[in-house]
UniProtKB/TrEMBL annotation:
The lineage of its organism: Bacteria, Pseudomonadati, Pseudomonadota, Gammaproteobacteria, Lysobacterales. Belongs to the FtsB family. Residues 30-57 form a coiled coil. This is Cell division protein FtsB. InterPro entries: Cell_div_FtsB, FtsL/DivIC. It comes from Rhodanobacter caeni.
Length: 113
């Protein structure tokens, strides 16, 4: 009789272990859900930071004229009346693109004629 009870308990233990490792709600599914939760939490943090930056931009644009002017200058090329526009070309000059004028002819020495 004791053998049958031990056998039944061992079979139940094996069945429960199988369900734990491979069944619905088992270890694999929990691990998958934890990974998914981690990804979603990271995405939410990134989006929250972006939303806070956008909210700050909106508030700045609503309250200050300087922010509107700065954005118009950078994105639309705003130049106020009376201002002078300077454009700086930051590309390095190459020898082929730069043509220097020829040097002036050398003057003859003072007593050579």
């Amino acid at each position: 009789m004791l053998r049958w009870v031990a056998l039944i308990l061992i079979v139940m233990l094996v069945g429960l272990q199988l369900k734990l490792w491979s069944g619905s709600g088992g270890v694999r599914e929990v691990d998958t859900l934890r990974t998914s939760l981690k990804k979603q939490t990271d995405e939410n943090a990134r989006l929250l930071q972006r939303n806070q930056a956008l909210a700050a931009d909106v508030l700045d644009l609503k309250q200050g004229e300087q922010a509107v002017e700065a954005r118009a200058r950078n994105e639309l090329g705003l130049i106020k009346p009376g201002e002078t526009f300077y454009q700086v070309d930051e590309r390095p000059a190459t020898a082929a693109s730069v043509s220097l004028p020829p040097p002036p002819p050398a003057a003859p020495p003072a007593g050579a004629q």
